[in-house]
Amino acid sequence: MFSNFKPTWMVDAIYKITPEQLQTHGIKAVLTDLDNTLIAWNNPEGTIELQQWLLTLKKAGIPVIVVSNNNEERVRYAVERFDIDFVARALKPLGKGIREGVRRLNLSKDEVVMVGDQIMTDVRAANRVGVRSILVKPIIDTDSWKTQFNRLCERQIMRYLQKKNPEMVWQGEIT
User: Fold this and answer.
1) What fold is seen in the domain 3-164?
2) How far apart are CA 151 and CA 130, in angstroms?
3) Rounded to two decimals, what is the model's pTM?
4) Separation in Å, CA 57 to CA 18, 27, 87, 153
5) Which interval of the chain is the signal sequence (predicted)?
């Protein structure tokens, strides 16, 4: 019933995903959500840990594109200091933004992964397009008012998915 919301992997934090893990699975590029995945929704400055993670991926030749439902001005302001590409107004859970990201990378869907903190938007959109997904825990425990309703629904969906799929547990890496 909720299989469209099932992530490929569940990792504690985006910063624990390494180039070696990605390469082991044939992944050549990362699409990622912005708020509460890369940065706290209420702090667009990011962290040193984020800067180091992005630099590590860049050195490994793994491009990153932010795919966000936010407007262009908000996303540009948040990512310009990191010198990464983005797709704004992605319309997740529809696949528009993810398809655009894959197109810009000029890679096959099998060579790309979508990372996000929400199963109702990030994971659902990835599954809709046929891109593997990594669900990460939100960076902070609070959400913008627009996300709070989704979180309530997600708890129900996660309980169902984990009951049907006992292998769905939080990991420290992609296995």
Assistant:
1) Rossmann fold (3.40.50)
2) 23
3) 0.90
4) 8, 12, 19, 33
5) none
Who has greater pLDDT, 18 or 47? 18
> What are the structural domain ranges in the chain?
3-164
Residue with tokens 């262009």: 72
Helices (runs of H) and strands (runs of E) counted in the chain: 6, 6
Give the dihedral sign, CA 56/59/122/172: negative
Q: If you ran DSSP here, which 8-state letter would residue 70 be given?
A: S
User: In this predicted model, what pLDDT tens digit does every residue of 40-95 receive, in sequence order?
Assistant: 866 667 778 888 999 999 999 999 999 999 999 999 998 998 889 999 999 999 99
Tell me 93's DSSP state.
T
